[in-house]
Amino acid sequence: MQVNGQAYRSIWLAADGVGVEIIDQTRLPFHFHIVRLESVEQAMTAIRDMLVRGAPLIGATAAYGLCLGLRQHATTEAVENMAAQLIACRPTAINLRWAVERMLRLLLPLPPEQRLAAAYHEAGRICAEDVATNEAIGRHGATLIAAIHRNKKEGQPVNILTHCNAGWLATVDWGTALAPVYKAVELGIPVHVWVDETRPRNQGASLTAWELVAAHIPHHLIVDNAGGHLMQHGQVDCCIVGTDRTTASGDVCNKIGTYLKALAARDNGVPFYVALPGSTVDWTVSDGVAEIPIEERGEEEVLQLQGRDEAGTVHTVAIAPVATPAVNPAFDVTPARLVTGLITERGICAASRSGLLGLYPEQGQ
Fold first, then answer.
1. Number of helical H runs and strand E runs in the chain
2. Considering 224, 244, 251, 282, which one is annotated as catalytic?
3. 105 and 64 together in one domain
4. Residue that finishes a domain, picked among 129, 157, 187
5. Are 99 and 62 in contact (CB under 8 A)?
6. E strand or H helix that includes residue 161
7. 10 Å Cβ neighbour count for 325?
8. pLDDT in tens, 149-206
9. pLDDT at 177 (0 to 100)
10. Structural domain that includes position 7
11. Does residue 16 have an active-site annotation?
């Protein structure tokens, strides 16, 4: 995607072919800052502290993290230890485990001296495949937006509500939930996006809005509790969100607050779509509410806010009494019954086991 006229991905191999560079998403939207990763420990910190976030990007970062770790230790024991530590960084997003296990399947059968070059090659493949996958999600999702547009009055945009950030910053490029928006704009379809602020980390306000500004796409930022009101008054044509883990039965686990949007959409007859790559489906899990581990993050994310003052200085401020504690579940699960359809790189399907197996028949073997 473009930033100030220059094409970027969210992660890339440095010019020296050794280090890995990322965009520090904790500093957006106020500062565009590139960080170089040189060790597996730095990759773990980037994942854990959310310099990178979004299921596909977390997976890509973990793959490159193994590459960086292999520069120091290439024994089987070291590789397995690094893999376990990387997987433990974020428990909910399945792409993290998926990417690490893919790397292990390639690396462990090889002699130690061949592992480093093979790891860099495979991490590059994971990134390239992610870009192609997300662009395909965009193409399929754009057909839904085009169908809605055909039923709109001439000149009216398609109003799409999204939650959290599932744009190119959450992937290597294109994004999941925002990929159909970007593709629709390429097709000349007028689009307007309602951007949930997405408390507590405000990824909608700081990341999704930043992406849409860069892409010159009309949008408005709204507080998280405004979505239902807009739906009641016919101002939302569809919802499109991402997911960090999808069960084999079609339940989706996404940023906290997604479930409430799905309930409001169902009550108001608004289509609720979830965009995801096949790698985000956890075929070992059927009941999302009972089986998906929900990450509990630090209470400071709820008790503090970051903002910029009139002088341009960024501050972190407290918003609650000093003695008030907070609970911070990072995700919730939206049952499949509330999901209109799943937008994948292979097409659009019902949020059900049969729907998913129709697109991924190899998983039923």
1. 13, 18
2. 244
3. yes
4. 129
5. yes
6. strand 158-162
7. 8
8. 999 998 899 999 999 999 999 999 999 999 999 999 999 999 999 999 999 999 999 9
9. 98
10. 2-129
11. no
